[in-house]
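Model the whole thing, not chain by chain.
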Amino acid sequence: MNKKKIAVVGDPSSVMIFKAVGFDVFYEEEPDQIKRRLHKLADEGYVVIYITETAAQQAGDVIEEYATATYPAIIPIPAGKRSLGLGMKRVKENVEKAVGADILFKEG
Amino acid sequence: MATNVNPTRMELTRLKRRLATAVRGHKLLKDKRDEMVRQFMIYIRRNHALREKMEKALSDVSQHFVQAKAQMGSLYMSEALLYPARSAEFEVGTKNVMSVDVPTIKYTGATTDDQTHVPYAFTFTSAELDNAVVNLTSYLPELLELAEVEKTCNMLADEIEKTRRRVNALEYVMIPEMQESIKYISMKLAENERASTVRLMKAKEIMEKH
C-alpha cells in the first residue's frame, strides 16, 4: 500500500501554514482547477483532503461525489478569520438526512 | 391490484412463505435502523463539538499566521515554509459500524512537546509564526479526528436513509400487498369450495326427484 497522505486545498494565504506541519498543500482558486485537483488527489490515494470553505463552495458537486466513499474524506475548514458556516451546515444536513428533522441543534 | 395472482393453493403457500420472510426482514431492518440512529447520534454530537472547537482553533491559527506574514513579508514567509521539516504521520484503517465501512485515522506524529521541530531557522521569522505553527501542531490530532468523525457521520446518514427507505417499502408496500393477495386467494378458494358444495347438493336434489 502507498503511503497515506493528507492534502490541503485553498488560497495561498489561508493554507500555506499547513505546510509547516507536513500536509501537502495545493493552491487552487479557480472552480475548474479545484475540481480537477480534488479528482486528482482522490486518485492519488489521499486519505483526508482539507479544503477551505471558499473553495468548497465552488466545488460542491465534486465533494458530494466523494461523500459516500470511505476515502477520501473531504473536510471543509474555515479560511481566514471567520467561518462561513459551511461545515456546520453539513453537520446539520447529516442530522436531517438521518433523523428526518434537525433535532439536535435547533437553537444553534 | 391483488387480482393478478392465480387463486391456487400452490400460490397461496408460496405467498405465505414470502410474507413470513418479508416480516422477518422488516423486523431486522427496523432494528438495524434504530441501532444506526443511536450510533449516529453519538457520532454527530462528537462531530458538532469537534467542529465548533476546530473552527475556533483554526481561525485563531490563521490570525497568528496573518500577523506573522505582516511582520515578515510574504516572500520570507513562503521561503520559511517551503520545505516541511517533518511529514505528518498517522495510521489509517477502516472500522465496521453497522456494516458501513468507515475510516479511522489516528495521529501518530510529533506533538507539541518537540517545539524545536518548527521547519525553519529563527533568524528571519517572527515569533507569531512559531505560535501559529505550534498551535496548529497541537490541534492536529483533533483535526484528524474531525475528519474521521465527519466522514463517519456522512456515511452513516447515507446508510440510515437507505435503510429507512427499505423499511418503509416493506412496511407500507410489500407486506400489505402480500396480505391482500393472501386474503384474495383464500377467499377465492373458500368461494370455490362453497360453489362445489352447492353444486353437489343441487345434483343430489335433482337425483332424488327422479
